[in-house]
Amino acid sequence: MEVNGIVLSPDPRLRQECKPIEEITPEIEALAERMKREMFENAGVGLAAPQIGELVQLVVIDTDYESADDYDPIVLINPVIVEQSDHLVPFSEGCLSIPGVSCEIKRPDRVVVEAYDLDANLMRYEAEGGVFCVCLQHEIDHLHGITMFERLEPAQRMHAMREYQEALRRGAKPGETE
């Protein structure tokens, strides 16, 4: 199921491993632009290609914008976490594909990610604590068929899934966390 251009859980596309991008084509550039637009229109801070039904390793992130004037997402092609801390911290996460709920997820508090940009330059992003660190991990999870539900303990997962079903019944849309 899709709402506002966003694939919603439990759509099977969200549980699939995405293919690496072999070449940056005009189609990949257009996909990145579409993702930027969809993320902004749904008030997101990160979006992975499977969340709009495309099973390729492409992510867009902008955790700092306040309006269209300062909206400038980074594009990550084939992102890989190359370093991460052993120290896990809880963070309340939402997801455009799981509207109406937020979940407390424990993740490493520091990561280093390598990815290509649209000019085929290898980029390195270091993040410690905060939304950008969490967003990198959350979106890369999507590329490997992992949603935030899979990061929860079984009892937490059951509770979160019940809340999600109730949120859908209330008509929750992407970008709404509660």
Automatic annotation (TrEMBL):
Presence of keyword Membrane: no
EC number: 3.5.1.88
Identification of the protein by name: Peptide deformylase
Family statement: Belongs to the polypeptide deformylase family.
Superkingdom of this protein's organism: Bacteria
CDD domains: Pep_deformylase (cd00487)
PANTHER family hit by this protein: PEPTIDE DEFORMYLASE
Residues that hold Fe cation according to the record: 95, 138, 142
Catalytic residues identified in the record: 139
